[in-house]
Design goal:
The relative contact order is 0.13. Helix 8 crosses helix 10 and helix 9 packs antiparallel against helix 10. Strands 1, 2, 3, 4, 5, 6, 7, 8 and 9 form a 9-stranded mixed beta sheet that branches. The chain is built from 10 helices and 9 strands. The protein has 320 residues and is of the alpha/beta class. It is 43% helix and 19% strand.
Length: 320
Amino acid sequence: MSIDFTVAIPTYNGINRLPKVLECLRSQKDLENLKWEIIVVDNNSTDDTAKLVQEYQASYSEHLPLRYCFEPEQGLAFARSRAVKEAQGEFVGFLDDDNLPASNWVIAAYKFGQEHPKVGAYSSQIHGLFEVEPSQHLKQILFYLAINERGSQAHLYEPRKKGFPPGAGLVVRRQVWQENVPRHLFLIGRVGSSMLPGEDSEALFYIHKAGWEIWYNPAMEMEHIIPSWRLERNYLISLMRGIGLSRYYLRLLLLKNWQKPFAFLIYLVNDLRKLVLYFIHYHKLIKIDTVAAAEMERLFATFISPFYFGKLNINKHFKR
């Protein structure tokens, strides 16, 4: 049986989060003529995730395959790569284990791909579902938590201007991913001592480089569960640090080869300027204001990211 659409759910110790996602998928509508499947990619969990999926497999409809696979190599980049390898659908839609898709998410995702033959990847409209409502002041940086609200009209992404969408709620053409995205990305996500998120952007860069379009599709709506600890100062500062440290590598990907020799100095000067100006304006708030502290951390990490990137390359060279 050929499959039209695959929903892939990477998870790590997701026994308490997965049930909500699986129930949302069980409740999808208008799929009478669509052949689709769900794959749970267990990314080296130490809890009873496997047992939970087995229990759901027993109760799922025979017309909706629910599959399980184990990916021992830790990191979201590896889990998503494994999902694409295992998938049978023409399209693969990624849901994190804290993403709750609307009841028409699957059909909206499939139709968009069918109607846009040049699209290689397209993102959802993602709303935050907060355990504790954040202040208005804090909301100005919450898009870093994979909240993606870009209006009610579908539009094409221009990566050189506004970057790439988050991987949560992203749909890709399976063949496009297989032909263009390397199995081993440089940015693997937050794993152990690694502080380099941005694996989604790196994967999308390869799709974009191959000439495929990347879109935002607001008809694919979903909620991202945000627990209270993700709004705490220490977490947000750590998140922004990782985003900043990944910046230089992602910038280089978007440059032409002849531009790269000049990039180091240009970025260094411009990032230092931004860092100094921000510090001048907000230094009195950094110790007491979470937004100011997080933004300062992001700017500082962006400034040092070329050196951090260089250090990683040196370490990799000596490990060979």
